[in-house]
Amino acid sequence: MGNLYGYIRVSTRDQNEDRQLIALRELHIPEKNIFIDKQSGKDFNRPQYKRLVRKLKKDDLLYIKSIDRLGRNYAEILEQWRLLTQTKSIDIVVLDMPLLDTRRGKDLMGTFLSDIVLQVLSFVAENERINIRQRQAEGIAAAKARGIRFGRPPKPLPENFHQIYQQWKNGKITGTAAAKLCGMPLSTFRYRAEVYEKIKLL
């Protein structure tokens, strides 16, 4: 029997890893052997995961809470699973899915069943990632349609903007000169002038 390890992943720095941490601590995994990444599961380019893989030795046992904590890319999950179980010769236990416990069913039928379960769950994990991205895109589009603006709020207009705008609008100064007097790039001046004009017409 080798060493016990645990791997935890949350998608963002704001998400809480406590649920996964509690589950792994109950298994008496040493704290130094629990590795936590706070980033997307779209690929395996994660610093703590890479450190973990370097540490793993033959007959070690790795626990993860659920397959989507390992990753959300179907092909890469399967590739990493094979790297860990075949190349590294370690065992993996997925706590939320008892069928995914490589210590059991080392015979052909057991391996076949766990391979099928792994492929289905990997597909579900990636599909969920795609759905999340689609929901985010649809949410942003709907918010924009309601007039919600994203990004940093625009800087307030300079005090002399109205006067310079009038001079530019009446053809007394060029757009370049107007932009310079307002302390902004020409493209910004034109955009702010367009918005300003619409507000005046409301």
Topology:
Elements: E1 4-10, H1 18-25, E2 34-38, H2 47-55, E3 61-64, H3 67-70, H4 74-87, E4 91-94, H5 108-145, H6 161-169, H7 175-182, H8 186-201
Parallel strand pairs: 1-2, 1-3, 3-4
Strands of the widest sheet, in order across it, are 2-1-3-4
- Main β-sheet: number of strands, strand sense, barrel status? 4 strands, parallel
Question: The CATH topology of the largest domain is what?
Answer: Rossmann fold
Termini Cα gap: 75 Å
The ordered H/E elements are EHEHEHHEHHHH
Instruction: Determine the CATH superfamily of the largest domain.
Output: Resolvase, N-terminal catalytic domain
Query: How large, in whole angstroms, is the Cα Rg?
Result: 28 Å
Give the number of helices.
Answer: 8
The number of domains is 2
Average pLDDT over all residues? 82
Question: What would you say this structure looks like, in words?
Answer:
This protein has 202 residues and is α/β, with parallel strands linked by helices. The chain is built from eight helices and four strands. The protein folds into two domains: 4-135, Rossmann fold; 161-201. Helices cover 52% and strands 10% of the residues. The chain has a four-stranded parallel β-sheet, sandwiched between helices. Strand 1 (4-10), helix 1 and strand 2 form a beta-alpha-beta unit. It starts with a strand and ends with a helix.
Labels describing this entry:
Rossmann fold, alpha/beta, 52% helix, four-stranded parallel β-sheet, 202 residues
Concise account of the structure shown:
The chain has 202 residues and is of the alpha/beta class. It has helices at residues 18-25, 47-55, 67-70, 74-87, 108-145, 161-169, 175-182, 186-201, and strands spanning 4-10, 34-38, 61-64, 91-94.
